[in-house]
Specification:
The complex is a heterodimer of chains A (469) and B (147). Chain A has 469 residues and is of the alpha/beta class. Chain A has two domains: 346 residues, Methylmalonyl-CoA mutase (TIM Barrel, Alpha-Beta Barrel), CATH 3.20.20; 105 residues, no CATH class. Chain A has 18 helices and ten strands. The radius of gyration of chain A is 21 Å and the shape is globular. Chain B has one domain: Rossmann fold. In chain B, 39% of the residues lie in helices and 18% in strands. Chain B has six helices and five strands. Chain B is globular. The chains are: A alpha/beta (469), B alpha/beta (147). At the A-B interface, helix 5 and helix 18 of A face helix 1 of B.
Chain lengths: 469, 147
């Protein structure tokens, strides 16, 4: 039995840290200097302070954005901030995510020479922390690091060194959807390092905030899997002493399932933290607008973004990560990103938020999801291992944690899901995911409402995936 | 239903190029091509051009489908046909699709760029795989446009 415990804190991290920081691209970063830099930042650069000021029913807004050239990133940062983003994003390029700093440097140089983006994000490790700090001079809102890096140790050291106080990611959520072969046990350990470093730089008033990435593969992920992964990463961060954390999920495509997922995620996050001795940890809920395939037509994309903004208001998300009308067309221009912030704000302001929307259908859905999540979490807690992370790894190895459409070679891929007639994501085959027989019966009964059984499988799957197109 | 692939079935190498990890289209393509009666050799994600060349040689492929969803395609696909031709694989059909360049650029410009790299067909931001499958069976009758 290995349950989460404060005793699991990484020991001897100093040696590993010296090694990470001896990389030439760390450029002699000194942790005491970084701590002083953090202490001198405006208080609102820290997410927990911004979250505490939030009005009920008005989620904070965060766009996405990262571009290789420093001056362009500076322009993007200012434009997004001026457009009313509550959180400013820094999205990292995919070479850096795979620790390929040489390729990233080459493509950065080519981008600078030709004035054209050959990277799909900002190569923070190549630019370094001293230059990156200059992106945020005078900014009084939090910056959020968005990436997808299984080994983010150096990246996160440099990000915090740049004054970035929100770190997205986790051992499962940043390897299963993003990596083909990165060993998941190592990813879990490297993210323990990240969590520990975040905790070491935290003070009770100014914690470095962690966020997990609940949309995962963003493709037919059933709520039970998203919630289990979020809860696991929340508890792993708590073990390392993180004081402020956000769990998240991506719009499912079903209004009922979104409301139910938000209810269960909030409830069980708090319950599990309190139960395991982490009552001091603050927890927030983040909602990602539709992460699946987007319509090419801007009018439809705008309608989807507006509808999704309504859902964010109804579930009273602490933050919503917004999409743009150009989502289907590639990396959006800064202007389009700024417009997206404005239009989501407009929807949230204009419609206000009915408090506590509920219905019998939502209650049935929430009860089913909660029962499934409790089964899987109890099963993981019951696994052998000296530490909670080992139980989590074992659960993944055995296919108890199984992510549909994960590119990872070790993912079980036995869990099969499809949408029911109400567009909710249902479990067709649970694979090895340990849910109760009666819950599986309920899932299949709900699925039986579907009527396109004679279509080719790939066409049915495409229809489910292209739900919003 | 999956139609049974036979010895005469078209042999296809598919995969995602660059450090791109977008797997969904790859999974669906695999399924769709198999359901259309092809034998699919799936390199999945994170491939370099030479992986496609080696695989095509190994399985004696009729066609190669390269995907790029994050736009890295422009960097990696330059002169894509040359190593195929150098190994006597000039007859292999080469297709590329996805979001093959970063940012928004006119489709004709993108198509002619990738045709200049040696691709027979370019599907930039065309989500329907069905069209590519129809093209594939048509092209298999005539052979590659870059002999």
């Amino acid at each position: 039995m290995a349950r989460p415990t404060p005793e699991a804190r990484l020991r001897g991290i100093e040696r590993q840290r010296e090694q990470v920081l001896s990389h030439p691209l760390a450029r002699g970063l000194r942790t005491d200097e970084v701590a002083r830099h953090l202490a001198g930042l405006p208080a609102r650069r820290f997410p927990s302070i911004r979250y505490a000021e939030r009005e009920r029913g008005m989620p904070l807004l965060q766009p996405r954005g990262g571009t290789p050239i420093f001056e362009e990133q500076l322009r993007l940062t200012r434009m997004l901030s001026d457009a009313g983003a509550d959180f400013v994003p820094l999205t990292i390029d995919s070479c850096t995510r795979h620790n390929q700093y040489d390729t990233a440097s080459q493509l950065l140089r080519r981008s600078e020479e030709e004035g054209k983006a050959y990277l799909n994000g900002y190569p923070l490790v190549c630019h370094g922390h001293e230059l990156t700090r200059q992106l945020y001079t005078g900014l009084d809102k939090p910056v959020s690091l968005r990436h997808g890096t299984p080994d983010a140790r150096l990246l996160v050291e440099l990000a915090i060194g740049s004054g970035i106080a929100e770190i997205e990611g986790g051992g499962l959520c940043y390897s299963l959807p993003y990596s083909e072969g990165f060993p998941v046990d190592r990813a879990l350990l490297y993210w323990q390092y990240v969590d520990r470093v975040c905790a070491l730089y935290s003070t009770p008033e100014r914690p470095i905030h962690r966020e997990s990435f609940g949309p995962l593969s963003a493709t037919l992920v059933p709520p039970v899997i998203a919630i289990v992964i979020e809860l696991v990463e929340l508890l792993l961060a708590a073990e390392q002493g993180v004081l402020s954390f956000a769990v998240s999920f991506g719009q499912t495509g079903s209004f009922i399932q979104d409301v139910a997922t938000a209810q269960v995620m909030r409830k069980l996050a708090r319950e599990l933290l309190d139960e395991h001795g982490f009552a001091a940890m603050q927890v927030r809920l983040v909602y990602h607008q539709w992460m699946g395939q987007f319509p090419m037509q801007r009018e439809r994309a705008a309608a989807l973004i507006a509808g999704s903004a309504m859902v964010a208001g109804v579930i009273d998300a602490d933050k919503v990560v917004v999409k743009t009308v150009d989502e289907a067309l590639g990396v959006p221009r800064p202007e389009v990103n700024a417009e997206a912030v404005d239009s989501v704000r407009y929807v949230l302001r204009t419609f206000g938020t009915p408090a506590g929307v509920d219905s019998p259908a939502i209650q049935i859905e929430a009860a089913l999801i909660e029962s499934e999540v409790r089964s899987v979490m109890q099963a993981i807690f019951g696994l052998s291992g000296d530490a909670f992370w080992e139980s989590v790894y074992r659960a993944f190895q055995m296919g108890w944690i199984d992510l549909p459409f994960s590119p990872h070679a070790d993912n079980a891929n036995k869990l099969v899901t499809m949408r029911d007639a109400n567009r909710s994501i249902r479990i067709v085959e649970p694979g090895a995911v340990p849910i109760r027989a009666q819950d599986l019966v309920a899932e299949r009964a709900m699925l039986a409402t579907r009527t396109d059984g004679e279509q080719k499988t790939y066409r049915r799957m495409l229809a489910d995936i292209a739900l919003m197109v | 239903m999956v139609e049974a692939a036979s010895a005469e079935s078209p042999r296809l190498v598919i995969g995602v190029i660059g450090d791109d990890i977008h797997i969904v289209g790859n999974r669906i393509m695999h399924l769709a091509l198999e359901e259309s009666g092809c034998r699919v050799f799936n390199l999945r994600t994170r491939n370099r051009p030479e992986h496609f060349v080696q695989a095509a040689l190994e399985v004696n492929a009729h066609a190669v489908f390269v995907s790029s969803l994050n736009g890295e395609g422009e960097h990696w696909c330059a002169d894509f046909r040359r190593p195929f031709a150098a190994l006597g694989l000039g007859h292999v059909l080469l297709y590329v699709g996805g979001n093959v360049v970063v940012g928004s650029r006119p489709e004709p410009e993108v198509v002619s760029l990738f045709k200049s790299y040696g691709f027979d067909r370019v599907y930039h931001q065309r989500p329907d795989i069905g069209a590519a499958i129809i093209d594939l069976f048509e092209d298999l009758k005539h052979g590659a446009s870059h002999p």
